[in-house]
């Protein structure tokens, strides 16, 4: 081998690590620039989506009211076994904490939280504050029991200790019509006059399922028609499908109120055609809610179906017909199975949006047609009860995630097995 060949081979071996290092450096630089490009979007999602969702979930189990208002009492109750009344030190701590809470304006939140455990607790706190023992009273225990005999009952102290935990399942259980019994600590069903949330969730999912089914029945033929039309006509009609997105949701809902009312266009038309003799109640009930929500959510079903149908070759159906299959059988057994991905995506998207709707049921529905979102808004805006506002929202989010997980397994069965 010549000397020049040896030198060239040595230079090549020396250059190889250098090229690899430069390549790795270039890749790191590319990844860093990519991260910088997506950083604004990541921060936006983190601040505007992840952080509010995390706050929502934490509020459903957060329980600061009793700890904030009665810190010394909570500390004294930490070692209390619950078999007999607390010691004198605990009663003294309670009197001191109540006086401080009154000065700091914390009584309202305290009484409200304790009334969740025992409704009479609000009255008990108010009565005690009006007759709060003086600091020179020898026995705070006897003084409090003299003010109200409830302070001598174990269930009130057990409820106080139960409500003093920093985290509580109260709101989540209440959203499922259950509660923790203060006497035993077991999970039991809530009182019948307070058990409304399971029915509300059932109503929400029922309305969402009906709306999704109607959107599928109406959206499938429309999507198929758009997919089979020439591109020019298809694009023109697609504008009509997208037109609701360019109109305010409140305007669309208010338009349905006008159309569906007793003296509205629909009732007048039906009476003119002789189909009915008197106006039919179509608004401020379940019928109006379903009609209005179906109209609003129909594009969310059409678009996924259309995107899938547009890519299905038409020669498959023609081949099945040429082999002797009936046109309907060829369509049902050859074409429809290829639309399952779009059908599942559209149904999932429509259902998730439907169960979270607030404006349309609030404007078009009656008192018996309100969904979970209405009560989330009620507890947020009217009673300012963040725990009860967050608990139904958290359960609704959990249901949405479960639906998404089911959708993922149905659409990617192989990945689910691996």
Short description:
By secondary structure, the protein is mainly α.
Describe the sheet with the most strands. Answer: 2 strands, antiparallel
User: For this structure, what is the CATH class of the largest domain?
Assistant: Mainly Alpha
Q: Considering DSSP H and I runs of 4 or more, what fraction of the residues is helical? A: over 70%
Q: What is the multimeric organization of the chains shown? A: single chain
Q: Distance between the terminal alpha carbons, to the nearest Å? A: 55 Å
Please compute the radius of gyration using only Cα atoms.
32 Å
Strand content: under 5%
Average pLDDT number: 86
Name of the CATH architecture of the largest domain:
Orthogonal Bundle
Fourth-tier CATH superfamily name of the largest domain: MetI-like
The count of β-strands is 2
Overall spatial form: extended
How many DSSP H or I helices?
21
**Series of secondary-structure elements, N-terminal to C-terminal:** HHHHHHHHHEEHHHHHHHHHHHH
Look up the CATH topology of the largest domain.
MetI-like fold
Protein structure class: mainly alpha
Task: Note poorly predicted spans.
Answer: none
Count of domain modules: 3
- Order of adjacent strands in the largest pleated sheet: 1-2
GO cellular component, one term: plasma membrane
Region (Disordered): 1-20
Biased composition (Polar residues): 1-18
Protein name: ABC transporter permease subunit
């Amino acid at each position: 081998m010549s000397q020049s060949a040896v030198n060239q081979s040595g230079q090549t071996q020396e250059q190889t690590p250098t090229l690899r290092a430069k390549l790795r450096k270039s890749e790191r630089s590319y990844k860093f620039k990519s991260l910088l490009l997506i950083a604004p979007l990541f921060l936006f999602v983190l601040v505007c989506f992840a952080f509010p969702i995390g706050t929502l979930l934490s509020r459903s189990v957060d329980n600061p009211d009793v700890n904030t208002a009665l810190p010394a009492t909570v500390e004294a109750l930490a070692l209390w076994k619950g078999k007999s009344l607390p010691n004198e030190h605990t009663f003294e701590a309670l009197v001191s904490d109540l006086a401080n809470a009154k000065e700091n304006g914390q009584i309202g939140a305290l009484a409200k939280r304790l009334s969740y455990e025992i409704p009479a607790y609000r009255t008990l706190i108010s009565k005690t504050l009006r007759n709060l023992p003086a600091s020179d009273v020898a026995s705070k225990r006897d003084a409090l029991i003299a003010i109200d005999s409830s302070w001598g009952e174990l269930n009130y102290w057990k409820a106080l200790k139960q409500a003093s935990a920093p985290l509580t399942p109260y709101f989540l259980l209440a959203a499922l019509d259950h509660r923790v019994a203060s006497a035993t600590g077991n999970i039991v069903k809530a009182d019948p006059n307070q058990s409304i949330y399971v029915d509300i969730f059932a109503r929400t999912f029922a309305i969402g399922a009906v709306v999704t089914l109607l959107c599928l029945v109406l959206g499938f033929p429309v999507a198929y028609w758009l997919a089979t039309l020439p591109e020019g006509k298809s694009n023109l009609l697609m504008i009509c499908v997208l037109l609701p997105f360019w109109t305010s949701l409140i305007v669309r809902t208010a338009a349905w109120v006008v159309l569906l009312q007793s003296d509205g266009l629909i009732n007048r038309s039906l009476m003119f055609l002789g189909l009915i003799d008197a106006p039919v109640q179509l608004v401020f009930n379940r019928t109006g809610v379903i009609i209005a929500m179906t109209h609003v959510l129909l594009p969310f079903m059409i678009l996924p179906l259309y995107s899938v149908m547009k890519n299905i070759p038409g020669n498959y159906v023609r081949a099945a017909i040429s082999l002797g299959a009936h046109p309907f059988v060829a369509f049902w057994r050859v074409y429809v199975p290829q639309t399952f991905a779009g059908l599942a995506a559209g149904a999932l998207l429509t259902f998730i949006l439907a169960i979270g709707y607030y404006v349309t049921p609030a404007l078009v529905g009656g008192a018996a047609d309100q969904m979970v979102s209405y009560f989330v808004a009620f507890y947020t805006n009217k009673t300012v009860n963040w725990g009860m506002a967050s608990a139904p929202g958290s359960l609704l989010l959990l249901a949405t995630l479960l639906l998404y997980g089911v959708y993922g397994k149905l659409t990617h069965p192989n990945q689910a097995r691996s």
